[in-house]
Amino acid sequence: MSKPSIILVPGSFSFPELYDTVVNPIKGKGYEIKALHYPSVGLKTGPREGTPPTMYDDAAFIAKETEKLADEGKDVVIVAHSYGGVPTTESTKGLSKGEREKAGKKGGIVKLAYLTCLVPPVGTAAASMLADVPAENKINLKVGEDGWMRHEDIAPTAAIVFSDLPPEEGQAWIRSFSAHSAASFGSELTHPGYKDIPAAWLLCEKDLCIPAKTQREAIAMIEKISGTKVDVTSVQKDHVPHATEPELVVDWILKVVESV
């Protein structure tokens, strides 16, 4: 039996190269894996022209990449990090293996793997899920006239996002971040992809960006709507474990993939 293919959907502001710490070791295990650069992640500097992309643009991009693999008859596991959980969930309509089988097609999504994610109920946007984050953990972002968000307060942001790293290392990561479309955080989920696709979750207990409480509420919501248990792995890590302990994330992804 062939190995599932893996799509990795990064968090906000993040280029796919920032996940090489995870992608490269998994490739070395013989898996097909690709980290995506979706539309709402822009360039590092300068103003943007045109209407900023929404979460729906991101979801359409993810769906297109998924469909390519599915049309080749491949089973697909999508690993989403942080904001990536929202467009990933939205993108799955018609692409689950069960839906494709009913349509006489091979391949499709067999698992959703949420890595310390934002995963809202239908009718809710990413921004709404972050409303209850404690004030001391809220990240100061500047939204430009072009509609793109940028990090300006490097040191405090690094202390929140990369709380497990020494300050200078966390700040170096933040400086590698891109701009991100503000509109994407206001797009409400319309499709509950987790309803019919089995889900796994890496719950980072020390995450200051998406508190463990918010993650547990999302897990409970998924279990209620789907009627099935989410395969939860709880770890004492911050918001970006692929930076602080990539081996842990690699092992988790391989465990998820090998379980399908």
TrEMBL record:
Domain of life: Eukaryota
Pfam families for the chain: Abhydrolase_6 (PF12697)
UniProt-recorded Gene Ontology molecular function terms: hydrolase activity
Keywords tagged on the record: Hydrolase
Annotated AB hydrolase-1 domain residues: 6-251
Hydrolase as UniProt keyword: yes
InterPro entries membership: AB_hydrolase_1, AB_hydrolase_fold, Sec-Metab_Biosynth_Hydrolase
SUPFAM superfamilies listed in its UniProt record: alpha/beta-Hydrolases (SSF53474)
PANTHER family with a match to the protein in the record: AB HYDROLASE-1 DOMAIN-CONTAINING PROTEIN-RELATED, ESTERASE_LIPASE_THIOESTERASE DOMAIN-CONTAINING PROTEIN
Descriptive protein name: Alpha/beta-hydrolase
Organism the protein comes from: Pleomassaria siparia CBS 279.74
